[in-house]
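Below is one record:
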Amino acid sequence: MLSAGIIAEYNPFHNGHYYHMSKTKTQTGAEVIICVLSGDFVQRGEVAVCSKFLRTQMALSAGADLIVMLPYAYSCSGAEIFAYGAVNILNQLSCDYISFGCEDDNLQKLLKAAEILSFEEKDFKDSLKNHLSQGRSYAKSRQLAAEEYSPELNDILCSPNNILAVEYLKQIIINNYPIKPHAVKRVGADHNSLKPDSVFSSASQIRQMLKAKDNGYVNYVPYFTADILNDININDIENYKNIIYQNLLISTAEKLSAYPDISPSLANKIINNFSEFTNISDFIDKMSDKHHAKSRISRSLCHMICGFDISYSELKSCPVPYIRVLGFNQNGRKFLSQIKENKNIVSNTYDFYSSSSGFAKCIFSYDLIASDLFNLGNCAPKGIDYKTVPIYFD
């Protein structure tokens, strides 16, 4: 079966996601759509507005055939680790295509940028070092160095979805994965735009509407998303204010530096400004500067409450150790039957956790912690992941 993989958060699933999935099917001719879906905490360091199971239900309702989970260790990480984990899972599933939405769908340019960042030749490295020495952030320095090395890449590394697309392509290039890339140009509102158009809105704007209890979000999501969101409590990072406050209260700069994304300078900044902590959003705003992006700080706080301290270098040293199935339809079941020899497929979480060991058990334990923390913030019972089986969508 010709397969196309989509890496997503669907936080929540909206009209733009529906457009991307539809275009992926028609333009690639894929017989099966596989989604690698972030778990309960997402790449920008936020808690998802609703559980991974409800977002799985949204994706299946939209026409996806198989939904597998991107573990917490990769889903709540910077773009490189996020891409490393997700693309590795697609490769383990022998996916034919990877389809991504981006601001610039010029695949030639995106591949050129990915090649430059993959091989980092001397001229690029020298330019990068020069921009870093002038006090610019790594992301900005990398963007400027790539543009100097290859001027036609102007603005390619400015937009968040372009950056993720380039990171996906980097993983394909570095690991020589036999996955064909397919770019779909985004339509409507930009990734973080707070100004929706008549049909499309960014997930950021929809989340703001949900938090403000503004029912206008229904204009920008499919009916099945609206039906799900209408009946649930929306989770939010501010629900963890007391937990984060307590953790910071007993932390030191040295202790904070053990977590990924927290450099010694950021750790000291957090400790020195802790007395001004009132809520999470304002605290993150106060901590952020040209060296420390808001998403990085937010991820750091998530790692702190989850106790996640695995280094990024360790994560990149081996493949994702399991592929957890969240949901599937009949077509997805047929695809799974074709790859049943893949020993990494997990459908029964209790049996897997009981029998696993080493790196796999360590990574999976953080999924369980993240799930329980998500449920704590959303006033749901503990231990749901042990009892929930993959969703079958008939």
